[in-house]
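[job 0412] stage=fold_complex status=start
inputs:
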Amino acid sequence: MDPAQFLTESRVVIVAGKGGVGKTTVTAALARTAALAGLTTLVVEVEGKSGLATLYGQPQFAYDEVVLSPGGPQGAADVLARTVTPDEALLEYLGDHGLNRISRRLVTSGALDVVATAVPGIRDILVLGKVKSLSREERIDLVVLDAPAAGHAITFLGSARGLVDAVKVGPINTQAQDVLDLLTDPALCRVLLVTLPEETPVNELIETAYNLEDQVGVSLGPVVVNGVYPDLAGIGADPVAAARQAGAALRPGEAGHLADAAAFRRERAQLQAEQMARLAADLPLPQLALPFQFSADLGPADLAVLADSVRDGIAGLPEPDPASTPSTAPADDPATEAAS
Amino acid sequence: MSGPVMDAAGDGGALGDLVRRSSIVVCTGSGGVGKTTTAAVLALEGARQGRRTVVVTIDPAKRLADALGLEGLSDTPSAIAGDWPGELSALMLDTKSTFDGLIAKYAGSPDQAEAILANRFYRNISSALSGTQEYMAMEKLYELHEEHDFDLVVVDTPPTRNALDFLDAPRNITRLLDHKLFRLLMAPTRGIVKALNVAAQAFLHTVSRVVGGEAIDDAMTFFHAFEGMEQGFRDRAQRVLELLSDEGTAFVLVASPRRDTVEEAGYFAERLGEADIAVRALIVNRMHPRFGTETATAARERATTLAGTDLGDLYTNLADFALVASREEDHLRGLAAKVAPAPVVRVPFLATDVHDLDGLAAIGTHVFAAADAAPSA
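[job 0412] stage=fold_complex status=done
writing structure:
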């Protein structure tokens, strides 16, 4: 599938997953891929202090929008980034509702805590409401949201439905309904779930995926499997035989180290393949595999590799079935082909 | 399976000592680093040492339940049968029922307790207020330590980015209870306050236009119902904090060797330091193995020369693991210095996930034998 076409199927992509699975890395790589495909992309963070800026080799950003990576001459677009916090989103929301005067006091007096406790989920719908309004800006082609790691994605994304049911009238209901419209319209928003190719994260992802579809009604994009060991054809070979074949000499003890390292990788690769097969069997969603980065350092160079993997992964995705896709965009628009 | 190996390790090294000497062990660290498993490993060691041990887990994915072969954990301690001289119990934190228990304990009368438990604002506090889960984890720990007959309580902390919020959590709750706005509204008849009260009422009216009058009414009802219980809550929160800084309480920092999680672990260590709490041990899970002593650069050069051959691939693989292992040690160096003199335990990346007691014991062989192992040069 064409990357630009895939990435413009919805205005907002929410990247979600449990802590430690590399959600922020995936967010960064996806944004980079989109920018390289010519889409001006805004990354939204909701927690601050993530590794996103480091991945781009940039200083930490905050509520003000920054350019993480400027577009280039080869048709690449900007990657922009900003943080959206509930407090700031609430201030804006109150301002928009003609309550500018009390908004500052609401935050400084700490009354926000009381309000947020009285109406749980209000923080989530304020943040998502802000994301929705950002996605409406014409200068931005795609918004990638790095969802909170804390707790379940289900809580964060489920707040809107909960509030629509709990608060029947008034501005909160309007806001929640607005967010729910975003979440449940596949042309506006998709959720990409991230996991590692390991047993426990795969179990959790499967459970989360079904809950999100059933309870929130979001549309799920491909599952991103992060940290997959790249194939290495020769690691099944016996080091001594391989040395003879290559006409090279091994140092004493080296054959053992080479064999042990190869066995370790084969064993882990096998376990990873089993988990990915299980995931495919239990969850009928296409998978995007991202390679494990051995540098364990994750800077701009790794990001470039990962962005290439995302692009190649998307290219390998099946073409959408026009009969089952409610997307309004024509699937075989010649202009899109030419633009890529 | 792995049991005899661990027994052969004798006293279990620095971590064996820590488990033996502590009455409370708190495992802390960011999400996804193996805190829950580590807590179970430490608790299992407690039982093996002959102590009456309980482990409290918080993770809603019930990973510990899997690891301990339990179908589901309830929020009261349930004993796990096993071949050890001590006892091992496990439970899963239920934030709401723990909070309900606290209300029942401090309410002046059953009626007061009932009024609070039925209030919607209270139900929101006990399920949705940030920090409540952290607070209740510490409350549970206190309850198990003070009111049950356990020698050792091992507790996992919530998998939030700010996993150390439990240090502030009791304060967060009391801050809410102390809220100026509500203090004013609670004292409608006192002279000078009355004028302020009018302003507060107007403010509240505006807020209710946004969030709905019902929500504010619920909150008001809650604060009225809670009247008189604040002091009991505050005192207990204080005792919980004192217990956390007690000599018998050991904080174990759990991390993985990736740069981002090491950075977060460093932040946790600093936060604990600010609270005058020392990290007693650093456990680093999922360390990549190192094969031989060749540097990544040297192996990579060989791989380049031999490109296109099987041997070239074998060297690439060796270089990959040498690189990841050396980067991981680089990341850990600063953290180890930050928590010094706490021992650093490295647990290797295991071939399979842990889902039974044998798996926990296998990790135990690393935790209780490899303590203080010097990093490879």
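[job 0412] summary: Chain B touches chain A through 72 residues (CB under 8 Å).
[job 0412] exit 0
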